[in-house]
């Protein structure tokens, strides 16, 4: 009879009370606690959904239980029983020995922020640790051939799912306790989405649009808790390049400079667009020019990417609508933005994107040779970067602002600092 019942259960298409990893992979779970057979086989953490309808979970389920209570004023999604499997420990070792160094170009010799402080924060708030482990898996897999990275991609997918579930619930019920790890995880998710695209997407423009919208989504996390976030000593370094004071100083240093290869794009808006769309693109060009002249004055021991990515935070919703619709002018402007990234010191999670965006835009504009001429400067820059001739920001030894003065309340939403 026992064998017959087991055989009958195999005909079910899903587990009604299965663990979260099996549900994520759409795999039949045998519902054994504290670790199901699939999680034991894969040597991964086995976590379980919250019991509903007043029923209590299996008494032996405490070890693997990861979900918070579904009632109360603000869920506490920090858990103390995060079990690291051997594959998880390998990912953690990879991150603390190698992965963190590749996150941004200035981190290797400057700080243990992502090596130690963020890991400690992740131990207090495991949903953040899940995000960091997912990013570590993507970074580790980026060095392997596609056929060799499947296990790492599966690990990354599992960890990012375990990070996103608490993340979404915190968005629904914000609280100050989770404000800092939520902001850090937002930055991790942005990097993860750029870095997880290992091969050129079929539609690079739409893929970039998705990533840039994630960057804008960080403002949602910042909004209710800016006071808590801006005063966090853990985050001080993340804001030092993109704080309002830092940007004001960069504006002073770059005053009067011109980047004509960007300013000339205003001629294109005059030729191609109606009034409403012209305004959105003209503002995008103006902001892109401001970014382009600022980044020249970022010190070599500082991170230039928050300044570059700041452009995406300032874009209007109309420009994003034009970009997702593959409007030629919006695409050309965006390729100039990605060319600025190509001029920066390379980071693994962004270095392929300039080639992808340029190739897709060239394909998009293939039937209009006159428009292809507007890609002359991005072609030169991106081609040069691909050949490893990469320009770096000019060191400015005269600029060394105290970190304490760089974190101030922004005057408006557009001035909110982008992630570091």
UniProtKB/TrEMBL annotation:
It holds the Pfam family Fungal_trans_2. Keywords: Nucleus. One of its GO terms (molecular function) is zinc ion binding. Residues 53-62 have a biased composition (Low complexity). InterPro entries: Fun_TF (IPR021858), Sterol_Uptake_Regulator (IPR053157), Zn2-C6_fun-type_DNA-bd_sf (IPR036864), Zn2Cys6_DnaBD (IPR001138). SUPFAM superfamilies: Zn2/Cys6 DNA-binding domain (SSF57701). Residues 52-74 are annotated as: Disordered. The keyword Repeat does not apply. Residues 18-48 form the Zn(2)-C6 fungal-type domain. The keyword Nucleus applies. This is Zn(2)-C6 fungal-type domain-containing protein. It comes from Ophiobolus disseminans. The lineage of its organism: Eukaryota, Fungi, Dikarya, Ascomycota, Pezizomycotina.
């Amino acid at each position: 009879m026992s064998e017959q019942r087991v055989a009958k259960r195999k005909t079910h298409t899903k587990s009604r009370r299965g663990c979260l990893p099996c549900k994520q992979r759409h795999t039949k779970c045998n519902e054994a606690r504290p670790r199901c057979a699939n999680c034991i086989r894969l040597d991964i953490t086995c976590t379980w959904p919250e019991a509903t309808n007043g029923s209590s979970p299996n008494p032996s389920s405490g070890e693997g239980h990861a979900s918070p209570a579904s009632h109360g004023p603000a869920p506490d999604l920090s858990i103390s029983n995060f079990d690291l499997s051997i594959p998880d420990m390998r990912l953690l070792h990879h991150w603390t020995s190698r992965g963190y160094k590749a996150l941004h170009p200035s981190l290797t010799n400057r700080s243990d922020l992502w090596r130690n402080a963020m890991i400690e924060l992740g131990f207090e708030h495991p949903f953040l640790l899940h995000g960091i482990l997912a990013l570590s898996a993507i970074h580790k897999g980026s060095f392997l051939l596609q056929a060799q990275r499947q296990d790492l991609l599966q690990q990354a997918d599992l960890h990012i799912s375990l990070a996103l579930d608490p993340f979404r619930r915190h968005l629904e019920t914000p609280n100050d306790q989770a404000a800092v790890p939520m902001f850090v995880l937002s930055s991790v998710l942005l990097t993860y989405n750029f870095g997880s695209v290992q091969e050129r997407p079929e539609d690079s423009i739409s893929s970039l649009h998705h990533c840039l919208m994630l960057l804008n989504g960080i403002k949602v996390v910042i909004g209710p808790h800016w006071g808590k976030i801006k005063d966090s000593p853990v985050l001080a370094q993340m804001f030092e390049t993109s704080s309002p004071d830092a940007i004001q100083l960069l504006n002073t240093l770059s005053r009067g400079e011109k980047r004509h290869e960007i300013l000339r794009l205003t001629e294109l808006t005059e030729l191609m667009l109606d009034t409403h769309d012209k305004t959105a693109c003209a503002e995008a060009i103006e902001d892109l020019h401001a970014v382009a002249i600022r980044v020249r004055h970022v010190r070599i021991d500082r991170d230039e990417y928050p300044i570059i990515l700041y452009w995406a935070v300032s874009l209007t919703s109309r420009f994003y609508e034009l970009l997702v619709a593959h409007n030629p002018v919006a695409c050309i402007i965006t390729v100039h933005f990605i060319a600025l990234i190509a001029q920066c010191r390379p980071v693994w999670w962004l270095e392929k994107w300039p080639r992808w965006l340029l190739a897709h835009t060239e394909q998009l504009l293939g039937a209009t040779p006159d428009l292809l001429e507007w890609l002359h400067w991005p072609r030169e820059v991106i081609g040069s970067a691909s050949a490893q001739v990469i320009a770096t920001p000019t060191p400015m030894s005269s600029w060394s602002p105290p970190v304490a003065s760089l974190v101030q309340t922004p005057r408006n939403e557009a001035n909110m600092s982008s992630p570091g």
